[in-house]
Write a structure and sequence with these properties.
With about 70 residues, this protein is mostly helical. It is about 70% helix and about 0% strand. The chain is elongated.
């Protein structure tokens, strides 16, 4: 549950936010992903959508241009 991860991960939507050094929770979530293909596909699909909509090269370029033009 590092600060930067909160900007990238929506818990149980495109990944898991887990408190640092919580090996039980990490193990539980890895096992769940390994055993549950529906959850794995759901998180995979949401991760791709999130990255493509927030970190697309053209979007980042437009955002930088807006800042530089001001």
């Amino acid at each position: 549950d590092l600060e930067g991860n909160k900007d990238l991960i929506i818990n149980k939507e495109n990944g898991y936010l887990i408190k640092q050094n919580n090996s039980v929770e990490i193990s539980k979530n890895i096992t769940n992903l390994f055993n549950n293909s529906k959850v794995r596909s759901y998180i995979k699909r949401n991760s791709l959508v999130f990255i493509r909509s927030n970190f697309d090269y053209n979007k980042i370029k437009r955002d930088y241009n807006k800042v530089l033009i001001k």
